[in-house]
Amino acid sequence: MLKYSRQRESIKNFLIGRYDHPTAETIYENMKREYPRISLGTVYRNLSLLADLGEIQKLSTGIGPDRFDGNSAPHYHFICKDCGCVMDLMAINLDHINILAAKDFAGEIEGHYAHFFGRCPGCQTKTAKESQGGDTPVNV
Length: 140
Fold this sequence. Notes:
- There is one protein chain.
- By secondary structure, the chain is α+β, with helices and mostly antiparallel strands.
- It is about 35% helix and about 15% strand.
- It has 5 helices and 5 strands.
- The protein has helices at about 5-15, 25-35, 40-50, 95-100, 120-130, and strands spanning about 55-60, 65-70, 75-80, 85-90, 115-120.
- It has a 3-stranded mixed sheet with strand order 4-3-5, with no helix packed on it. A two-stranded antiparallel sheet has the order 1-2.
- A hairpin with a 7-residue loop joins β1 (about 55-60) and β2.
- The chain is flat, with a radius of gyration of 19 Å.
- It starts with 5 loop residues before the first helix and ends in a 9-residue tail after the last helix.
């Protein structure tokens, strides 16, 4: 049985209900308010343990540092190629991918991970304004 840790519980509670998928450094900065002597290594170890236990998700986005999600239920993520933000995509169900993958596979497919990439609404709006000259200074 795993020994109870107030710090680990605080990290988990910090992540629950958040939708911004913070980095370990962001979590560390917030934990320091409650535990001034906590180390970044302690935060990393607890995040790793919580992810191994299936209580949180560790997201390796390929863009910047890993992100962490307090929602351990199966769901998909969108990753912005411009700003690196990570957003939940809750309304889609791609379970049929398991069936498609298993069709010509001799083993057993138990699940899958998928990340969607592109521009988030904020970056898309910013790009559209820039292409229209909206943020370009005008010389008179």
